[in-house]
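Lab notebook, bench 4. The sequencing result for the construct came back, and we need a structural model before the next group meeting so we can plan mutations. Quick request posted to the team channel:

Model the 3D structure of this chain.
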Amino acid sequence: MVSGVLGTEEQCQQPGELEPVQRKSTAAIVADQLRAAIMYGSLPPGSQLGEAELAARLGVSRGPLREAMQRLVAEGLLRSEPHRGLFVMDLHTEDVADIYVARLAVERAACEQIVRYHRVEAVAELTAAQSRMVAAAGKGDAIELADADQEFHETLVRVSGSARLQRMAQTLLVEKRMCLTALQDKYHADVQALVDEHKGLVDAIESGDEALLLSRLAEHMNDALDRLNGSMAE
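Done. Here's the predicted structure in token form:
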């Protein structure tokens, strides 16, 4: 009985014990680069991905590139057309509405977990993220503000502690950013309102008022969708 307990303890990681270094595979690094290229518009919606050209630009063989592209197909950022190849997904008005339905569901679940279990950590990290939004707004840098906005929502989902919510949020946030990039000449957000809305989310978390937080989150999502729809209609 005693030896069984000792055996279990010996299998546990001991403080200070060296562990293998976790390193991303080439395919994972390539997927990150393709995801960023889609998000920032270097690979715009509807564009076709040529294997030879991309492999040369990235300096990788076709094996890791194909694996990376299949990851993005699974995420819904690329579509495969028989006998034609892979294309970046197009986003239409109905897709944008669906993105925000899904975002609200994911971030609502994250907020519920935060208020119940991770409030202190969330307030600290989201306050820092919101401060970066304030700094970007002060400089009038639209791209930096969009980056800070994205970081805020990535942080919101991450501090919920749910790896599955993070996976779902990643693709939704890239799709949202694709919309902003495509509409950058038409999309004009009320910068102060945007900053204030995020501050309101942090304040609601700090107060521990779950109903208030969920109400503010829904209002924030609806306002963002209205702004995007207005820009798409122009």
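Strands lie at 48-49, 78-81, 85-88.
Will bring this to the meeting.
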